[in-house]
Amino acid sequence: MPRSFLAVSLIALALAGCVTKPSPPSHLGATVTAAPPSKAEVWQRVASVADAARIARIGSAWSEGLAEARSRGFGDEVKKEALLLRSGAALARPAPTPGSYSCRMVEIGSTPKKKVAFERFKPFFCYVEVEGELLTIVKQTGSQRPAGRLWEDDVASRLVYLGSLALGGEDQPKAYGEDPARDMAGVVERVAPFVWRLVIPYPRNGAKLDVFELTPVAEQPK
């Protein structure tokens, strides 16, 4: 083989090794993988802006409500409620067990439309049940019967409650968001063995907090 042909061949091979592969077309862009939504983002997509803001201000509702109740002569009543009205009492594993509960409500704090800074109401019965992947809480008796779903939150010691209110002889409450005037939003926490509370900050009744205590019962009276 002639030396000149061999030299040309070697040069061609060397040049071929220096050729870079073409880049992919720029219009294809980079591959982007979206992170799954957080637990809080899931319930925030359901909640109204106003209700999400109420939940975000739950710490203020606690401090304002307790301060008003104590300053207006209800310090002993607050003390009697012990863990139920202790703002930092939430424990791990907040999900209540499905079944029947004895429930009662305490209102603390007031706005101009509500003059009393502490009020305790008679017990009633409510029920926790499973609906799909969520738990629900339903008040079973009375002229005003809240019912709502419980959503997991980024704060592991609480569940977020989004519900509505059934009135009078209505068989079912309206769906959350159907009538904003009846919507309710708050959090569920476990505060002791077999004791839970549902806390509604800045409810529409004029209190600073509605606090429902839930304790399980083996069977409701007939």
Mind explaining what this structure looks like?
It is a single chain. With 222 residues, the chain is an alpha+beta fold. It has helices at residues 3-17, 39-46, 49-56, 58-80; strands at 99-108, 118-120, 124-131, 134-139, 144-152, 159-167, 184-192, 195-201, 209-216. An eight-stranded antiparallel β-barrel has the order 1-3-4-5-6-7-8-9. The protein is globular and about 65 Å long. Residues 1-19 have low confidence and may be disordered.
Strand-helix topology:
Blueprint: H1 3-17, H2 39-46, H3 49-56, H4 58-80, E1 99-108, E2 118-120, E3 124-131, E4 134-139, E5 144-152, E6 159-167, E7 184-192, E8 195-201, E9 209-216
Antiparallel strand pairs: 1-2, 1-3, 1-9, 3-4, 4-5, 5-6, 6-7, 7-8, 8-9
Q: Quote the average pLDDT.
A: 85
Structural shape: globular
What's the order of the H and E elements?
A: HHHHEEEEEEEEE
How much of the residues is beta strand, in percent? 25-35%
Structural class: alpha+beta
- Count every helix, treating DSSP H or I runs of 4 or more residues as helices: 4
Q: Largest beta sheet, briefly?
A: 8 strands, antiparallel, barrel
